[in-house]
Amino acid sequence: MKLIFEKSNAGRGCELLPECDVPVTSVDDKFRRNKELHLPEVSETELSRHYTELMKRTFGVNDGFYPLGSCTMKYNPKVNDDIAKLSGFAEIHPLQPVGSAQGCLEVMKLAEEYLSEVTGMDAMDFQPAAGAHGEFTGLKLIAAYHKERKDTKRTKIIVPDSAHGTNPASAAMAGFSVINVASTKEGYVDPEELKKVVGDDTAGFMLTNPNTVGMFDENILEITKIIHDAGGLNYYDGANLNAIMGLVRPGDMGFDVVHLNLHKTFSTPHGGGGPGSGPVGCKELLIKYLPSSRIILKDGKYEYAEKSPESIGRVKAFYGNFLIVVRALTYILTLGGEGLKNASENAVLNANYMMSKLQESFEIPFSGHCMHEFVISLEQLKQEKGVSALDFAKTLLDYGMHPPTMYFPLIVHEALMVEPTETETKENLELAIEVYKKVLEQAKSDPELLHQSPVKTVIGRPDEVMAARNPILRYQFNVNGE
Amino acid sequence: MGTYVPNTKKEQQEMLKEIGVSDLRELFRAIPEEVFLERPLNIPAGLPEMAVQQKMSGIAGKNKVFHSIFRGAGAYRHYIPSIVKQITSKEEFVTAYTPYQAEISQGILQSIFEYQTMICELTGLDVSNASVYDGASAAAEAVIMCKERKRTKALVAESVHPETLETIQTYCSGTDIEVVLVPAKEGRTDIDELRRMIDNETACVLLQQPNYYGILEDASLIGDIVHEKDAKFILSCNPISLGVLKTPAEYGADIAVGEGQPFGIPLSFGGPYLGFMAATEKLMRRLPGRIVGETKDSRGERAFVLTLQAREQHIRREKASSNICSNQALCAMTAAVYLDAMGAKGLRQAAESSMSKAHYLAEKLTKLKGFHLVYSGEFFHEFVTTCNGNVDNVLAALEKRGILGGYPLSGKDEGHLLWCVTEMNTKEEMDTLVGILEEVTKA
Amino acid sequence: MKKEYLYTKSHEWVLFLDEKTARIGISDYAQGELGDLVFINLPEAGDEVVAGEEFADVESVKAVSNIYSPVTGTVRAINEELLDHPEFVNSDATEAWFIEVEDIKDQVELLTEEQYKAQL
Fold this sequence. Notes:
The complex is a heterotrimer of chains A (482), B (443) and C (120). Chain A is α/β, with parallel strands linked by helices and 482 residues long. Chain A contains 14 helices and twelve strands. Chain A has two domains: 78-335, Aspartate Aminotransferase, domain 2 (3-Layer(aba) Sandwich); 340-467, Aspartate Aminotransferase, domain 1, CATH 3.90.1150.10. Helices cover 35% and strands 10% of the residues of chain A. With 443 residues, chain B is an alpha/beta fold. Chain B folds into two domains: 68-78 and 343-442, Aspartate Aminotransferase, domain 1; 82-337, Type I PLP-dependent aspartate aminotransferase-like (Major domain) (Aspartate Aminotransferase, domain 2, 3-Layer(aba) Sandwich), CATH 3.40.640. At the A-B interface, helix 1, helix 2, helix 3, helix 4 and helix 5 of A face helix 1, helix 2, helix 3, helix 4 and helix 5 of B.
């Protein structure tokens, strides 16, 4: 389809603003823009149709099954979006006097209270805008903690080799060096390996539990104790919290700091890549280092406490992605404590149901019950038939389904990670199971077919090598500016 | 209790049976007994949708929606065309994940490609990423981009937004980048000080245009000084102003960043907003975050994909240029639709009206006793004045009349007000504001 | 001195131009394993490289791999052509050198072509 620039026609446009009702100030030549500005010139009708066309070339959770492992693509309730659009939230200036923004402070205070309860933490800070941003923030808290104790040799963060890529990247960004620790072949942290790498230079340890292969690490208490005994702190990556709400809390498992992904567990939409929200929770010992001022209730009014002098400082302007917090709070109020637990239970139930039905046909590299997601390995299929996880995933597109996450975690070859979430019906799961089995049969009988897929999508497989070797990152207007 | 779990208890039982367990608890056997939560979460019972609507509307009602706003300081109320709100509410755009599966994500990918093109057009630079969290974190990421082995000093103008400065300091605090402030003199960067401070270890100089006080800095001269030392020049700019003001490229900037919120994003109590980032081609591979590129598909047709991914955390892990994963994609789309709707003409009109009205208000205000401009020189749509009498009392009086007055500055600017005017403020509104101020400060 | 390609176990080749100078690249086997290269990060002339430590990395669409220096010395020149044409490594890995190193002081254990191929 055409780009909006290719639909542009000089002289067209939308009439949106009234004439200026005061004398026009001219800009000094020194500051005046000389470079011509090319923006589309389109009527509102064309603009509307352009985006409808783009919409039809986009697959959302509303379109169908979206079992993207580690991303928790659950249904995004519409009431959340409605609430976020209320003028009482959307039209509030971040620098309004506190007395005129009591509702905003109440939202953050309530969300802090509830999320602290879910995670077993003592405080929650909403400034981080996404999961990785939360990781960076949480790690800075750990750095500040050791620094204040003058324990300056603690420069290392230990990360399992199965971790999300953001973990080591965040640790490096926060100024730590990264120690990777090998997982056992069952995908768990190996306490013996961990003991070998901890020491008086250990600042902390980052872990998701359930881990990135979808299994709950039974040794969790031993693991967090090894780190604490060595003088380090434990960081909980909340990417997989959707498996355990109301069942077990990071704070009770020995974690000192967590981040949550409100855009995963708490049903706020992903927006095609963002905005998310990555609040950081922590135990009492780290509260004074948090980036934002604490909200306190005094004489029936919310206000900000004075900023702690030990704070790590801001990671972003203002108070984070506030309207995402509004959505998450709406979700929590809808479900309540029991509902959150019920959501986790059903997320785990759905995943186990799919896994058990797929087990007879597919290689599932890890045994035992999974949590909210599970991993399939197509290594054997790749070896025998030359059909890769990529081929398999691309074929699923032709069945109108979003494929699972491919090639993650890195410790499983030809991995497909399936996270159905709790908001799918039994029938949807059964349909997916049927399709997966059918595609597997096709892979065995006619592998070439899978190499050619997808055929029903608006484009075929894109040439990613060409894109990366000769980057074309913008549309070029011709000299006449058309 | 509200729920989004569709399966009935009966279906859940059937599924458990199929799995081969007797109850749900059995699926959680791996959780150690001593930490398994036997008690219910201490969170109120869930509510049906109507009750939730009522409760949340009640909370929203405790906020005051000002219908007349003369405050900016990093968050600006501009007109948002209706089509922007409609398009960006489409469920497909709202609920899709990051476009990893290009074949079913061409809509999102193309919209980002169009966004990147428009950011390049606005800034005059070669390449743009697909967005970062906000203007402050964009500035911090830009500083980190400039670090080189022998250049580890970042000079940041004191006249940038204080929250931008603080964010840069936090981002750099664990690295070997030393952040040094270039002092301001009379509301703008002290050029002599800059000349004195810049050296061969300077990686970059970051300037905000217009600066925190609304004043236009001598960015061309500063750009020349920076390049004489072969350092990188980062310009943080107000995107609306680019409709009429010089592009960062015209000032010689290597990187342009800024807060994209004025492009169709509501005030939202500070977020979600939009950090935009553009750079010269030379710096392309140092840009953090996602970037969309054009290519061809297996059928030979134009297609769009996420590209240059080897810069990113999911591949490069601890060596990645940044840890960013989720960005502000829907906000970037919002900005793109806003620019499509406004066009160059509309954007120029918004910029010109904001600037003209700000000058109108400045002139009217400074005719009042006790209100004068604190800093002289060209300004865009913000300016700082003194205040006749107690700032809090004056602002409270305005608030009573539904007006959000200028932002009370702190520190060495204590007692001064930072005013902002956009195309949304009518002449009548401004006259009313001045009338009230006259009345309040007379006593 | 006989000019021959020697190899490391980590799949780099080294071609000594004289006793103290050498060209370095990656083996044909390595380029095949890596797939289509899309970018190559090279050091700068004047940089020090250390035997057994990484001095460059190569990017394919979905992976980054470190390249380790077979020798210790100073980078005399880099093959600038590769910055724009990483595909040259895929088309002829022995021709597409990465860097030239001078003042060579040390080296890792090197294999002859025969030995290298035998251990693949």
